Amino acid sequence: MDSSSSFAVECRRLPLALLLAAIISPTPAFAHASDRGHVLLLPTGYYLIGGAFAVAVSFLVLALLPADRLDRFWRRRLPLFSFNDGARTIVSLSSFAGFAILIAAGLLGSRDPLSNPLPLVIWTLLWAVVTLLQGMFGDLWSWLNPWYGPWRLLSRLIGMSEEASTRLPRWLGCWPAVALFFAFAWFELVDPAPDDPARLAVAAGLYWLFTFAAMLMFGYGRWSRSGEFLGIFLSMLARFALAGRDEAGRLGLCWPGAKLLAAEPLPPSGIAFLLLALSSVSFDGLSKTFFWLALFGINPLEFPGRTAVIGSGTSGLVVTFLLLAGVFLFAVWLGQLLAGSDQPLSRAAGLLVWSIVPIALAYHVAHYLTALLVDGQYALAALSDPFALGWNLFGTADMQVEAGIVAGADSAWWLWNVQAGVIILGHVLAVLVAHGFAWRLHPQPSRAALSQFPLTLLMIAYTVFGLWLLATPTVG
Question: Quick one: CA torsion of 220, 222, 228, 232, rounded to 10 degrees?
C-alpha cells in the first residue's frame, strides 16, 4: 500500500478512535460546568406576555410592512474600512499554541473542572463567549480557529497546493458536519463526564487531529465547508452580525440579520445542520426540567446522576431534532400549499431555514448566560495557574468568585428580563427575516403573507416554549 492510501485509511480510522475514546474511557462522573446552576424561575406571566407580544409583532410585520420598504431597511450599510488577511496565519498559530497548552493542562493539570482551564475555556469562553461575539461582530472564528495557521504553514513547507487532489463528492454536502455536531452535542449533553479535564483533552485533541488530517486530504476550504462543524455553525451565526466584510474585503456595519437575506438556499444537509443546532440547545434546557425527568420516573429532588439517564438523553436528543425538523418542514410545506406556490419544497425550506439563525443565537445567549457569569470567573482564575503549580500569570489566580451575581433577588430580576427579552427579540427578528425570504419566493403580497402564517405560528409556539423553559423548575 502506498503512502497516500495509508494516509487515507488512517484518516478514516480517526473518527472511530474519537468515538471509542469518548465512550469507553473509564472516568468518574463530573457535572457539566453549566449544569452547576442556580434555579431562576421566570414568572409565568413573562412567557404569556412574550407569546402575545410575538403574535402582535408577527401580525404587524405580515400585514403592514411592504416588501420594498423592508428591502430598503435591510440593505442599509455603513462602510468603515478595508483590511487584508495578512495577519490571519499568525493569529491562528497563536490560537493553536494556546489550544496545545490547554490540552496539556487537561492531561497534566488539576482534575477539578473548576480549577482546570480546559473545560472552562471550551464550555464557557469558546462555546458561550465566542459564539456571542461571532453573532455580534462577524466571522472572528475564521481568524481564531486553531487549524488555518498550522495548515497554511505545513502546506507551504511541503509545497502542497491549496486545493487538495482528493475531492469530496458533491452529494455529501455538509452531512459529515451534521454527524460530528451530533457527536459533540451528545458528548456535551449526555456523556457522564464532559467536564473531566483528561477525558475532554483526549476528545478535543483527537478532533483537532482528525480535522487537520481531513483538511490536508480534502483541502482547507472544502473540509471547512463540509466537515468542521464548529466553523460551519459559527459562520452561519456570523451572517446575523452587525459587522461584516463585502467581496472587496471592506468592513461595514449593517442591521442584525441583513446578511441572512443575501444567502442562497441551503441543501438538505445544511437544513439539518441548522435545525440540529437549535434542537440541541432546546433539549439541553428541556432535559433538566422536572417535567422531562418525571416522564422517565426520576425524582428530580434525588437526581441519580447523568450515568443513569444516558439512554433517555440519547433518545431525547434524537427525538427533539426529528420533531423540530418534521414540524418545520410541515410548516414550510403548508405555507407553500396555502400560497399556491410552484416552488420546490427543498428551495423554500433551504431559504426559510435561515430564519432559524436569530432564534438559535437567542437561545444560546439566554441558555448560557448564568453559566457565563459564574464560570467565566472560574476561567479567569484557572488561566493564571493552568497546571495547578501555584502560578499567578495574570494576577487572577486568587480572585474571589462571586456566585451571588446570579443568586440574589435583584440579580434574578434583571436576568429574567435579559433572558426573556433576548428570546422574544430573536423570534421577532426571525419573523422579519422569514418575511424577507417569503418575498423572494412569492413576489405577490397576499401569497407571501399566506405562505408565512404556518411558520409564524411555529415561531410563536417556540417563543412560548423557550420562555416556559425559563419558567419551569429544573435540576441544578
Answer: 120
Assigned domain for 332 exists = yes
pLDDT at residue 22 tops 70 = no
Q: How far apart are CA 152 and CA 299, in angstroms?
A: 53
Average pLDDT over residues 390-417: 80
Residue-range definition of the domain harbouring residue 286: 27-243+257-471
Over the range 293-326, which residues count as b (16 or more CB within 10 Å of their CB) and which as e? beeeebebeeeeebeebeebbeebbeebbeebbe
Q: Which residues contact 236 (CB under 8 A, 6 or more apart)?
A: 273, 274, 277, 357
Does residue 8 register a pLDDT over 70?
A: no
What's the mean per-residue pLDDT of the chain?
Answer: 82
Contacts of 78 (CB under 8 A, 6+ apart): 252, 253, 254
Kindly report the pTM of this predicted structure.
0.85
Query: How many separate domains does the chain show?
Result: 1
The pLDDT tens digits of the residues spanning 123-150 come to 999 998 999 999 888 889 999 999 999 9
Sequence-ordered list of residues with C-beta below 8 angstroms from that of 132, at least 6 positions apart, any chain: 364, 365
Q: How confident is the model at residue 57 (pLDDT cuts 50, 70, 90)?
A: low
248 secondary structure, DSSP code: T
Please state the rounded mean pLDDT for residues 152-160.
83
Specify the pLDDT at position 54. Answer: 64
**Does residue 7 lie in a domain region?**
no
| Residue 250 falls inside a structural domain | no
CA distance 322 to 339: 26
Specify if 19 maps to a domain: no
